[in-house]
Design a protein that fits this description.
Shape: elongated
Structural class: mainly alpha
Helix content: over 70%
Number of strands: 0
Number of helices: 5
Order of helices and strands: HHHHH
Amino acid sequence: MEYAKKSFYRAANAIYLQKIGCCALEEVTLHLIKSKCRPVFLYGLEACPLTKSNLQALDFVINRFFMRIFKTSNIDTVKYCQEFFGFDLPSVVWAKRMQKFEVKFALYLSS
């Protein structure tokens, strides 16, 4: 899991700090993060048993990144921005992927 967090930070910082920085709109930045960095972050985690504290640690990474982008420390503002831009937290995405993985695995076993 630490490797996943480190990979996300590396990819997100490459996009946010080096490539587009403060020049791009938040919507563009979040689209790039969602399409390029989140897959790096969540790669292979649906095959891992994660605890509630593991999922909270993954969510913390995204919440902190939103705090940096929107220059706020208010978690309510962060939650509103995540909802407004349709950016699901890793715990939500992981749960969806786990469910999909389990369905495919059950179909594989039944055939």
